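name: query_chain
kind: protein
chains: 1
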Amino acid sequence: MKVAILGAGCYRTHAAAGITNFSRACAVAEKVKKPEIAMTHSTIIMGAELRELAGIKDIVVSDPIFDNQFTVIDDFAYEDVIAAHKTNPESIMPKIREKVKEVAKDLPKPPKGAIHFTHPEKVGLKVTTDDKEAVADADWIITWLPKGDMQKGIIEKFAGDIKEGAIITHACTIPTTKFYTIFEELNIAKKVNVSSYHPGAVPEMKGQAFISEGYANEETIKKLYEIGALARGEAFKLPAELLGPVCDMCAALTAVTYAGLLTYRESVMNVLGAPASFTQMMAKESLEQVTALMNKVGIKNLEEHLDPGVFLGTADSMNFGAVGEILPTVLQALEKRKNKACTPDGMCK
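structure:
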């Protein structure tokens, strides 16, 4: 199997976030006894995983950065980074982030400049600056490209070189639905299998892969799932439409909403004995009306139109069954945010 990875990434944005580390990379490095993997990041850690854990040896990374200022910081011993991540990653990460920020001051942003700690060739990956060369005869193309509105212009340059039946997945910055539309517009959607191999977080920190269903055949989804579970440690299949809500910054809200749906369903159906049709009707009304309110008044102005305190005397009556697992915490959060104009007796202006 030949894998072409388009995009090498740059650590400066991960460092700027200040919340990432190399936990997954260090775990892989120690498992396969190759310390140089400990500080790989972005698609390079995913490539190293595919090579060492899934046994895929023919992997090429394509990025114009290899002809520009591809900068490797070698100030940190891999063994020291691994040791630190066994106890407390933050005992070493601040030094790494500071070094990245220092180097970034004089380095152009991608594709003119990029910061890494390990050259991809050091972990057995091939490199090129020619996407057409990379995708030629590739069985699986993994993209890690700039923001969504730029991707069609990049993909159309090598679309004609993608072979029949190839798997094409994205790893960031674009919903699977929009990603698939690119191949529709290029009139090659029917000859390829489009999905995702999304890490759901920076891949050097967490080992997980999200596989989108809906645009690839069953055999492809099964293959991606099996490879993802092997290489990334854990894999999830999900509808293509839900990849963004599950994996992007709104994931925190999606998680709260989904947990609410599941526990609400259990309480209303199992404790109250309501039929599924009625339970779903009420859930749909809740989700649609709250969304309609946000669209109407704007997310910044929600409290002006719906005091969070309104739920303190209503939702608490549903504090039984599975809902009781999460509702007390939700009510505490609402209590903190209720209209400050309300008086102790509940009267609000």
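note: The chain has 14 helices and ten strands.
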